[in-house]
Amino acid sequence: MSATSASSGGLVQTFNRNKLSWVGIVLFMVLCLIAIFAPFVAPYGPIDQSVMTRMRPPSMEHLFGTDAFGRDQFSRAVYGARISLSVGVVSVFLGMSVGGLLGVLAGYFGKRIDTVIMRSMDVLLSFPTLITGIVIVALLGPSLTNVIVAITVTLIPKFARIARAPTLAVKERAYIEACRAMGFSHARIILFHIVPNILTEILVMASLWTANAIMIEAGFAFLGLGVRPPTPTWGGMIREGFEHIFQAPWMSIFPGLCILLAVLSLNLIGDGLRDALDPRLKQVRDMG
Amino acid sequence: MTRYSLKCGLSALAMGFVMATSAMAQSVVNVGAFGADANQLDPHLSGGGQDRALFGYVFNGLTRFPPGSMDPTKIELDLATSIEGSDDGLVWTIKLRDDVQFHHGYGQLTSADVVYSLNRVRNPETSGFASAFSAIESVEAVDDMTVTITLKERVPTFMGMLANPAGGFIISQKASEELGEDVKASMIGTGPFQFETYTPKVQTVLGAHTDYFRGAPKLEQINYRYIPSDNARELAFAAGEIDLFYGRREQDWVERVKNQYGKDLDVLIFSPSQSRMLHLNKSVSPLDDIRVRKAVAHAINRDEFQILIGQDITKQLFAPVPSGFLGQASDLPRYEFDADKSKALLAEAGYPDGVSIKVPTTQIASLKVPFELIMEQMRRVGINLEVDFVDHRAWHALIRKDESPLVIYGAAPFPEADAFLTPFFASASIVGTPTGQTNFSHCDVADDEISAARIAADPAAQLASWEAAQQKIMEEVCVVPIFELMQVWGKRKSLDLGYELTGTLNLGPPITEATHFAQ
Fold it and tell me: Could you report the per-residue pLDDT of A104-154, keeping only the tens digit for each?
């Protein structure tokens, strides 16, 4: 137990030393706060049209300019953060929960259960992420819930693979043997002794895949498979702007920058976590 | 000296070759059509906008609008040399030209081809325009060059019915029967250009029909390319890959390309304007209450539509029949924009806190963009439209199954009132019924007037019936006419169409025997 604390302490120290990770955290927190407090941050309603002020370039009145319907692009981007971030976070959380559990079950029980689960995951993995998502959204219809379902389904096999490998290693450890000898149930061993020990590795990937999920949502929206208009999403805004890319490039540039910032922040966090957990780097640290 | 002469000679030869190549390139016109592919290469089946311009290059009818015009008063003879009607207007005798050859050696035009084509187009199994020709009782060949058409009832304009490119084109019976399933089978016509090849999702290639009865075309070839993206068509024009293309029907686009490609590009804005009307299904709640329909009508601010789409390419519309159509009435009930009145009507109808209506609508930009503004205008008065944007084909299927309470629809049929009144407002055309067409509103208040106008022998009586029908339709608020949208195409300046373009029912500039590139 004390070894775990020491390890966690080292992890925090390593993470603290990585300043870029903190930039990522601050950036992501700012985006989250903007999304949460959107009604107070946005100067206009996100769907309020004003055709008299259509396609105005960025100005003090409209920081990101206006779109073809005269809607304030800054306000839309602020409200769009709610959709994009919630799709990213919720779908990764669901994918991590379901996929991680399947991976742990496959790794822990092995044999036939492992074969059934992992071959099913292989089948899902054999389809490109975007194609799988498009098929699911096309079948279920475009809506926020269905986009989350589609992205979740594409993430499940990835998390299953990530969770299975460390489970195979952890289940052979002495303390798991001890738990078994003491008659602990499988559920108790998995939930209280295996999952906590593989969670950090899954969380690293979760931070990176949240960025991916945001980009996939943007891709769906760009293809017209996302949330229904006039609800703003960053991908949808890029798509709307694409139709006027020559006249009003700001319509696509600013939502594109929003996606860039969100993805960058999550990647910086993920990189920091990975560096802190990398066993080779850990050895170097320990030697130092 | 000899070497110098040789050099000069070679240079001249090279120059000549380049000029010759350049001259050859000028005899091929590349057209950028808007669809991803042809809808159906059959002039009796396809109503797809992307096909109509192409059919105009390949086919002739018995009568026609002069190239570049869609004025019904200027309809002229095309394949016919004379058309004479009986006193009751039910029997028509048509003499054919004797100098008309079908493409690819399929022989001379005879009355058999006319009988075959008109029978084909009035048969619902082989035609998408059967209802427009349903007044024909029989078509008979009197001799090789004479045809008699007998009608069940008078039609508003018989010459116009024959000139209608939506079904009025004559095809070769021999080719159609011999070629069977071949894509060419229904593409053998008598026009200035003949069908050569079709590559799905790429292009249809037409060659010059040198035996064309009005003279051999000046152009040698038309490459009719399918380019669905507005931006891609524009870039193709900028790269010199297309010379005539379907433009974006928005003011911003028109102004920008005029500035950007002004030296090289003419923007063509012409009729028919496609109407944009909001059909209100009066058989479903809450639109079954006329106060709610009036609330919708008063919520529409046409000024905003003109600003959104463009002043030059739109006209405000207040009648259920578009402007320029024979029989459009002017003195009709108007529902001007008045948000307060709209809210009051809603409250009076029992919806003081507003009302929600679920609506599927299309993703196609020319209808989606105005619909997004409709959503906003409705929201301002408390009508929340819960909109499901669906694929265009799926939407067409849904609205024909009577599954949408509000339908925004655009059409550019033959320019007379009946072409709108019968399919959109006669009870026989109510969607979901066996004879249903496009009466999305379930309008049934003007059947008598619409029928009377169809069979009226006296033009004045016909106009009076049409006006009475429109009066009733507007009083019932079956539809909210919003605006009319003109056709917009881009043309390379060096391409001389050979006529003045003010309108065309082919929805794309005709390419005739006179069309050519200026040197």
Answer: 999 999 889 999 999 999 998 888 878 888 888 878 877 888 889 999 999
Residues within 8 A of B (CB atoms), A 48-87 only? 48-49, 51-52, 54-55, 68-69
What does pTM read for this prediction?
Answer: 0.73
Residue B92: closest CA among B23, B27, B157, B176:
B157
Nearest CA in chain A to B360: A228
Give the β-pairing of B80-85 and B91-96. Answer: antiparallel
Beta-carbon pairs below 8 A across chains A and B: 46
Give the pLDDT mean for B417-433. 89
The pLDDT mean for chain B works out to 89
In chain A, the residue whose alpha carbon lies closest to the alpha carbon of B375 is: A230
Domain range A15-38+63-287, CATH class: mainly alpha
Beta strands per DSSP E along B227-302: 244-246, 265-280
Domains in chain B: ranges and CATH = 57-243+494-517 (3.40.190.10), 271-485 (3.10.105.10)
Whether A55 sits inside 8 A of B252 (CB atoms) is yes
Greatest CA span in chain B, whole angstroms?
101
CA distance B420 to B423: 6
Q: Percent of chain A, pLDDT > 90?
A: 45
Read off the tokens for B319: 């009648």
Residue contact B256–A51, C-beta within 8 A: no
Note the pLDDT tens digit of each residue in B253-311. 888 899 889 889 999 999 888 889 999 999 999 999 999 999 999 999 999 999 998 88
Between chains, do B230 and A243 touch, taking CB under 8 Å as contact?
Answer: yes
- In the sheet that holds B146-151, the strands lie side by side as B80-85, B91-96, B146-151, B136-143
Instruction: Report how far residue A6's alpha carbon sits from residue B154's, in angstroms, rounded to the nearest whole number.
Output: 97
- Is A134 an 8 Å CB contact of chain B? no
Residue B323 reports pLDDT greater than 90: no
Contacts of A230 in chain B (CB under 8 A): 372, 375-376
Could you give the ipTM of this predicted complex?
Answer: 0.71
Q: CB–CB of A62/A53 below 8 Å?
A: yes
Residue-range domain boundaries for chain A: 15-38+63-287
CA angle A88, A92, A96 (to 5 degrees): 175
Residue with tokens 């009865």: B213
Whether residues A49 and B307 touch (CB distance < 8 A) is answered with: no
Phi (first) and psi of residue B344, to 5 degrees: -65, -40
Q: Cis bond leading into B272, ω under 30°?
A: yes
Per-residue pLDDT, B4: 54
